[in-house]
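Honest question from a wet-lab person: if I give you the sequences of every part of a complex, can you actually get the arrangement of the whole thing, not just the pieces? Trying it with mine:
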Amino acid sequence: MAHVPLSPIGRPRDAFLDEASFARQREALGTKYELLDERRTEVANGWGQKYVERVHQKGKRTARERIEALKDEGSPLREVGTFVNHGERFGKLTSPAAGVVTAFCRVADRWTMVIANDNTVASGSWWPRTPEKIQRAQEMALRLRIPVVYLVDCSGLFLPEQSRSFPGRTGAGHIFAKNAELSAEGVPQIAGVFGDCIAGGGYMPIISDRVVMTEQAYMVIAGAALIKGAKSMSLSSLDIGGPEVHVHQSGCADVRVPDDDAAIATIRAEVEKLGSSATDFYRHGQDAADPFFPAFELDGLFPSDHRMTYEAEEVIARLVDRSLFWEILPDRGTEMIVGVGRIAGLYVGFVANRQGLIDDPDGRDGQRPAGILYRDGIAKVSAFSRACNDDGIPIVWMQDISGFDIGVEAERNGLLGYGSSLIYTNTTNTVPMFTVLLRKASGAGYYAMAGLPYEPVVQVSTPLTRQSVMEGRTLAIAAFNTKLDDDFEIVTEDPDERAAIEAGMAETEARIEGDMDPYKAASQMDTDEIVRLGELRGWLETFAEAAYQASGTRRVKNPRIWSLHDLAALAEVRG
Amino acid sequence: MFRRLLVANRGEVAVRIARAARAVGVAPVGVVSTADAGAPWTEEFDDVVCVGGPAPSESYLRMGALVQAAVQTGCSAVHPGWGFLAENARFAALCEQHGLTFVGPHSSTMDRMGLKWPSKVAMRAAGLDLTPGSDGLLASVEEAVEIAERIGYPVILKADAGGGGRGMRICRSEADVREAYPAARAEAISAFGNGALFLEKYVTGGRHIEVQVLGDHYGGAVHLFERECSIQRNHQKLIEESPSPALSNEERTALGERAARAAASIGYVGAGTIEFLADPDTMRLSFMEMNTRLQVEHPVTELVTGVDIVREQLRIAARAAIGFSQSGVALEGHAIECRINAEDPSDGFRPTPGTLTAFDVPTDRGPGRIRIDTHVSEGSEIPPYYDSLLAKVIAHAASRDEAIETMVRALEGAKIEGVATTIPLHLAVLASDAFQSGDYDTRSIPGWPA
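Yes, you can. This is the full assembly:
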């Protein structure tokens, strides 16, 4: 069987969810989306209109205006790391988006990673976590082998906080190490230099294959302010490191252009010279097609209470082209769904947690809850992940998981071992993996399903996401274990002590609840982005297209020689 | 050419396709529901697979079961006929995914022609006129009002996504537009997640004229002239003819050429029909929609051009180039088709399922010749679950008058008993002055009281 035997998946929404529940859930999520939109706008405004005007007065564009001009008209911009440093203050100052915009950006029909210093936030200087955010974007581009475009306008480190962004392993200098690594791997880098590029800002563009400078731009190891005698000679930084020097004398830049618009046009022209996207080739004769069951319905499919379940198949049905999906090993480890579908015409492997109750194969209690990993499910996911890696099929991990099974049986079954095997698999995979935290991303389940510590190319959360080792209630039980009986009820008869324990447990629960806020995770870079569920399909399209864009650089086997077929063949019930 | 073909349909069209398949050396395999199992028409097939219960949703619409039937019987292609899954891009993609050639255009072409605005954009780019209206999707209610004032009322607001009349509003005044715009948007957002609207002139009446086209995998496209389909009841066509009495020879050739060019420009593969609406006042022909499948009324075209459309479909699906050039297609004579349905026209066209105790339509009364496409004969059971089409009677003669006369003689001599049929309606229409003069449109059925 060399065909990829996709089958229809999913049902019309009214067949499994009544109009009232759908509307209610959509409305509840709508409230969270309002907050998301509000915060996005806040970040996009940088330090506000005053700083936008200041940029405009210099005859320059803001970082976001440059990106808008750079990207193909009408194409989506997929910003990552929007909420880095969200809610954090440095003295009296905030650093929206950590002062740098990083985004998947379509330029001349190719996905690129654009990294643009935000010149409306402290003249594009680097805050704590700015270097990490830039490196994360570089890493995404490196793993996908998509071109990187730097729109540099950076006055160097934000010096009052230098100890937090300079010396460490991921300190500012590591950006240049990443520049070098990208170059060594043959990933094209193109830099536009638009303004002050002092110290680190000066180093960042240089390793790029093309460096375009505007007449307002300069790149210097140190600005005029630190040069002895500069004042008496009335030397400016532009005199020291402007295009006159770097294009004509030092050769540190390639092209001088009059202004921002000309620089953007030049960069677009350079991207156009690169190899065109191979995605259409890898579609194997098909075209991109929307899901048959509309993706927007995902906005109303998830119960507002994270303890309530939904049908994971219906989520997949609203993500894959024409709602066609090939579920592999459907009869084993049924707490997990693994299989292949097309996204924008391109084959993608899916791993998702089934929800609700599943049959217990050992039959002791008849049924057991899904959303938890048992032995067969872990083994299935591991085998599937290895096969996709072998076959060059990008994997999308869709988490809504409470964790591993626990207890006597779980230990006897060697879940530690099976889990470790899965961790080995995911760690050593070279195929692009993308992780979506639909709702719960708890405990070892978060790790086993390619959570951020296992370095997926991108990990996105939703406004419903809860990342934690354990839920607040569970932690409260663990913390107050000595005060509780076998059923986790408080033992003491003393009303005062009982009240104290109750208050303590409630406080623990509340604190954990706050820590699970996806914005906090995004601020700390524990997740790359927060997206709407209804937009998930669009994000997956970007991921799939970016993963298949480059040709000749990673294994992409044609379906005839997929090892997945072997796995499926051996799983067929015979006789 | 394929060795075996699954015909994913039933009744008259299944028989039509099975015969064409045999004619090109392909063995047809049929599918049936339990209600159709053992019906005489199933004898046309080498093999028949039962795919489920009587209701279409349990059998003829079960994509997975149909694909499984094709794979298990060793078929290499699937013909969807018309109705059921014929314009379902998901089914086409599913077939291709399992290595089965879908006899029809590429699934993405079906997508494009299935969506309202993209199909209009594609066809306008290909040089066809559109009904006057907005130039793309509307940005605001003000824009809607401005366009409506310019083109004149009544106008119709339509949602870009979806169908089923949702997000659609007829407006007869500015006040109507202002009231309908937000309502249609809200309805479309709620139903399809996309509130984009466009607006066009609401045309009542007019003539429905459609052009048969064929395209191949190598960019070739030809037209087989037009069909006039303005005799309709509730948008169901009753009588079709070719050529249209409303077009001159020059107009006919020009329309055909434009349609063929449009098909070529969208890379259309297979048999398709481009439907036009002729404005009742100006006779301006604007593009309505493209049907990406074989049409029920295709035999009138076959009789006047001599081209076997189903056979061409199969050849094209097997990646052969179209077997003739445009200059090789000539119009000969005139053909008329009457759809004989098991419905009682004297009782509000109530379907009349039952057993046919007699079925005979004479083909030898002249002056022209008669072709009968049917799957029934005396003793056939007409199940209540499906389309009520019993047979298509097609008359072909040297002139339109002779074709009418041939048809009248055949229908007057027909002996169909056990179920009521629409023959009385057809005879009334054929006898009317309006039909005989060729001056009729979609507003009323000539010779038949409204």
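Two things worth pointing out. Chain A touches chain B at residues 3-8, 285-290, 292, 294-297, 299, 321-324, 534 (CB under 8 Å). The mean pLDDT of chain A is 92.
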